[in-house]
Write a structure and sequence with these properties.
There is one protein chain. By secondary structure, the protein is mainly beta. It has a 5-stranded antiparallel β-sheet, covered by helices on one side.
Length: 97
């Protein structure tokens, strides 16, 4: 464990692009003071975060493989499905050059 004041983080990864050329992008990393807070925020983000795509989501399916990992499928008004991953991480070190 690190001595950092916020040793827990939540990452948000989102899919972007057209059907055949979708790519994953890390869109945010947020820091938290403890594991319980990070896990609660990860679940809240999975249920409420509005990603860039799809532009007009009409359905959200939230899946959880454990307390630290969520996969979200968002279906848009035009039928396309985009995915988002929300993960909890323990920060084990910060390195400066």
């Amino acid at each position: 464990m690190t001595d950092e004041p916020n040793p827990w983080a939540v990452s948000i990864e989102e899919q972007t692009g057209a059907k055949n050329k979708r790519q994953w992008h890390l869109t945010a990393v947020r820091r938290y003071p403890d594991c319980a807070t990070a896990r609660g925020e990860a679940e809240r983000i999975a249920r409420t975060h509005v990603p860039e795509n799809p532009a007009s989501p009409v359905e959200r399916m939230v899946m959880c493989s454990g307390p630290d990992a969520f996969l979200v499928a968002l279906r848009g008004r035009l039928g396309g499905v985009f995915h988002m991953r929300v993960s909890v991480w323990e920060v084990v070190g910060l390195y400066e050059r």
